[in-house]
Design goal:
heterodimer, A: 116 residues, mainly beta, 7-stranded mixed β-sheet, 52% strand, B: 110 residues, 6-stranded mixed β-sheet, 5-stranded antiparallel β-sheet, globular
């Protein structure tokens, strides 16, 4: 199956700093990527849909100025958590879909963010 | 808005048992349904993908069925093993996104 690479797999940062997470589709072009957040023992919650070359679409309640999403190419989307606070500590996962064929979704391995 | 419900939320069984995990969704206008496995602190591993036109898919000891009209899917795990212990997530694909259930946490004891 297709591969989606997410980096870093874990990061610890100080409050007030910004953290960038990368999501790459390695062997297919992903016109759309999705960013999810997962709190402990909770399911994945969609944060935003990232479209190549256009602005991301954020879900209700997600602060677009805090979670900056850039999808500059067909293989790369980035999520930047700006001015991070401890409550932003979570597991972030990206997903890329092939809109041809099966429309199967492929996921990155996730990024564990801890803000101290 | 699509809603996905998984039952049970948690399940504990002894090794060797056959078990069924349930997933229901409210909007039958889907492209496909996927079952994922998630180990603690890890990302998602895709187990099975069922297209909206299909009724079931099989992979090894796993069998997933889909009844789109009633908004239900089941994941059947045969002869469970301790290595099957994980959280199993069901997700449905609509036009623009995926909607996940909250998962079933499975524990298979030796």
């Amino acid at each position: 199956g297709a591969v989606v690479s997410q980096h870093p797999s874990w990061v610890i940062c100080k409050s007030g700093t910004s953290v960038k997470i990368e999501c790459r589709s390695l062997d297919f072009q992903a016109t759309t990527m999705f960013w999810y957040r997962q709190f402990p023992k909770q399911s994945l919650m969609l944060m935003a849909t990232s479209n190549e070359g256009s602005k991301a679409t954020y879900e209700q309640g997600v602060e677009k100025d805090k979670f900056l999403i850039n999808h500059a190419s067909l293989t790369l989307s980035t999520l930047t958590v700006t001015s991070a606070h401890p409550e932003d500590s979570s597991f972030y996962i990206c997903s890329a879909r092939q809109f041809q064929g099966t429309a199967e979704a492929f996921f990155g391995q996730g990024t564990r963010l801890t803000v101290v | 808005k699509q809603e996905v419900t998984q039952i049970p939320a948690a399940l504990s069984v002894p090794e060797g048992e056959n078990l069924v995990l349930n997933c229901s969704f409210t909007d039958s206008a889907i492209y496909n349904l996927q079952w994922f496995r998630q180990d603690p602190g890890k990302g998602l591993t895709s187990l099975l993908l069922i297209q909206s036109s299909q009724r079931e898919q099989t992979s090894g000891r796993l069998n997933a069925s889909l009844d789109k009209s009633s908004g239900r899917s089941t994941l059947y795990i045969a002869a469970s093993q301790p290595g099957d212990s994980a959280t199993y997530l069901c997700a449905v694909t609509g036009y623009s996104t995926l909607t996940f259930g909250k998962g079933t946490m499975l524990l298979v004891s030796p």
